[in-house]
Each structure stands twice: as structure tokens, then as C-alpha cells.
Amino acid sequence: MKDVMTITSGQNPRVKEVVMLQQKSAERKRTGLFVVEGARELMHCMEAGLEVKEVYVCPEIAGEETVDEVWRLTGEAERVEVTPEVYEKMAYRGSTEGVIAVVKARNVGLLDLQLSAEPLLVVVERVEKPGNLGAILRSADAAGADAVVVCDALTDLYNPNLIRSAIGAVFTVPCVVCSSEECIAFLKERGIQILTAQLQDSQLYYNSDMRRGTAIVMGTESTGLTPMWRKAADAHIRIPMLGRLDSLNVSVSTAILLFEAVRQRMTNND
Alpha-carbon distance 115 to 62, whole Å? Predict the structure, then answer.
């Protein structure tokens, strides 16, 4: 077992580096590292096979049993104990069980995806809010989607708010970042139908056959999808709106469409 270092000063360079990784997307991109907070999130991360570089625990917060389990599971990662004061400075959010880890990012490309015979994918274009993307990943995990593809991304996959809202799904669902052009070409080459969610010139979503290979494509809540996606679509679909507002949260809309695909596929298998 590796020796355990102790840090008692918030001015320690290691502490400052963790804070930078939490706060700066540019630092995450430069180093290829990101931060995971919480024992549960760390376990999901390790189950997905990501490499943990450093682990910081606060025994006063985590408790002896959690600390022993984290040390047991994190293998060759560097091990550091910190005081409650130092942990408070490092943590991006409260109630994270006294566990923080620095993890090596894994970049997955479209050609790395292992798709099923009739794949189900979620494509999101220019999503801005990390919380929305995290919620979409959770729905994709629950629906057994093959992957989530983020086109022309405006947030990075390892934003701490995204990791928090995804509750581990960022590690369980293959997630690719690419351009819209690359994604459209990938889908067309594989014969995966493109269903774009939009209000204009569209049919009700449950009238679309989602039992074949399908990509459900979602745009931003403010402007929707760009013309490129609308033109590339095999069908435009919409969720009926019976109230006074004409829009659902994008993560809620994605969940509705995903589970229609699940319903159709389960019915088809009965």
C-alpha cells in the first residue's frame, strides 16, 4: 500500500491545482485531467475503467470505514489526507462525503463506439447547461441507449456541475464530442435514422417507428436545432403541448422520446 501524504495548508500547490481543475475548463483540457467528488461517483468512475491519479480524503468527514474502502479500491493512485479546512477549499460543492479524486479523462470518438444491431442514440446540438446534459445522460443510461453524442459542444463533459447532475452516468454511457457534420455523416453511413425534435413541420413522436436504428436529435431550448439537422432528418417529431407554454426542458423532452423508443422495442420483443 502506498504511503499517505497529509496536507494541512490551503496554499499547497496540489490544493491549488485541484481548485483550478474544478473551476477552469481550459485547465481540464490542458492537463487531460478532471475532478470527481464523492465516494459513489468515484466508484462509478473506477467501474468504468478510468485511471485515478490522485485521491484526497478528509477522515473527519468521510469516516474511517469510507477511507479504508477508498484506499483499498484506488490501487496505485497517490493518496492524500486533508484537514476539513483544506477540503472545504478544494470541494466544488458540499456534502461530497469527504472524498475527491483527480482522474485522467478518456476521449471517445465516433469510430470507437460499440453499437448494437439496432442502436439507440441521443444527439444534442450546442447544449449550454451542464445540468441539462447531466440529466440527459442519466435518462440515456436508464433507457439503455448506446451513446450520447454532443455536437458543437458549449460545455465540456467533465464540468463538475455535469458530473454532479449525471450521478455517475457520464461514466456509464459512452459519450462523444464532435461536430454536427461529423455526426450526420456517421449516422448516414450506418443507416441510422435521424429523428429531430422540433415543433415546426413535424409529426407526433409516437407515430414514428423507433424500433430500427435511431438517433434522437435535440436542440437548445432557446433556438432549437440548426437548419443543418432539420435538413438531414429522416423525420421531424414533436411532443404534444396542451398547456399555454410551448416548450419542455430539453432533458425532460429527451427522456420522453427515449422511453417511447424503449416502449416500442419492448413491445416488439414481447
Answer: 39
> Would you state the cell numbers that stand for residue 238, as one nine-digit string?
414533436
CA 128 to chain centre: 13
Q: How far apart are alpha carbons 110 and 114 in whole angstroms? A: 9
Q: What is the DSSP letter of 229?
A: H
Helix (H) or strand (E) holding 7: strand 4-7
CATH number for the domain whose boundaries are 110-269: 3.40.1280.10
Closest by Cα among 76, 132, 85 to 104: 76
Burial label, 155 (beta-carbon count in 10 A; 0-12, 13-18, 19+) = buried
Compute the distance between CA of residue 184 and CA of residue 228 in angstroms, rounded to an integer.
9
Return the bridge partners of 151, or none: 125, 178
Cα separation, 74 vs 42, in Å, equals: 9
The pTM (predicted TM-score) of the whole model is 0.89
What was the pLDDT predicted at 81?
Answer: 95
The CATH 3.30.1330.30 portion of the chain extends over 4-104
Cell numbers at 19, concatenated: 481548485
Domain with CATH 3.40.1280.10 in the chain: 110-269
Tens digit of pLDDT for each residue in 140-188? 999 999 999 999 988 888 998 898 888 888 999 999 999 999 999 999 9
What would be the CATH architecture of the domain defined by 4-104?
2-Layer Sandwich (3.30)
